[in-house]
Amino acid sequence: MAALAKSKSVRRLKRLIIPVQKLGPESARAIAESDPLSGLQYLKLYRNKIGDQGVKYFAESKKLSDLRSLRLAWNEITAEGAKHVADSQNFRSLTSLVLSQNRLGDAGAKA
Questions:
Q1: 2-110: CATH homologous superfamily?
Q2: pLDDT tens track for 9-20
Q3: Per residue, what are the HEC states of 7-69?
Q4: Which pTM does this prediction carry?
Q5: How far is CA 47 from each of CA 14, 17, 74, rounded to the nearest angstrom?
Q6: Gap between the Cα atoms of 98 and 7, Å rounded
Q7: Domain locations in the chain?
């Protein structure tokens, strides 16, 4: 993932979909810190085990402020991760959010 995130050939990429790769939070960090991926508008990572830490990297990233759709089903996210999304000042363009099949619970739903 780090190589893709650094690649100049993805600079115009608007949509990134990576299913079932068990990437983990460090791959989420690579995406969140990527200059070439800073124009992403649609990000779908399902079954990648990014967890709450991965969501935190996304929520704190100014480089992902153009995201309109964030789809993170099946990523072992809890209420803590939902709170990162809800509290983020960087997701102002976000119009679609999918956190299904995670362990959000009532506290995550309230976030």
A1: Ribonuclease Inhibitor (3.80.10.10)
A2: 999 999 999 999
A3: CHHHCCCCEEEEECCCCCHHHHHHHHCCCCCCCCCEEEEECCCCHHHHHHHHHHCHHHCCCCE
A4: 0.93
A5: 21, 11, 5
A6: 27
A7: 2-110
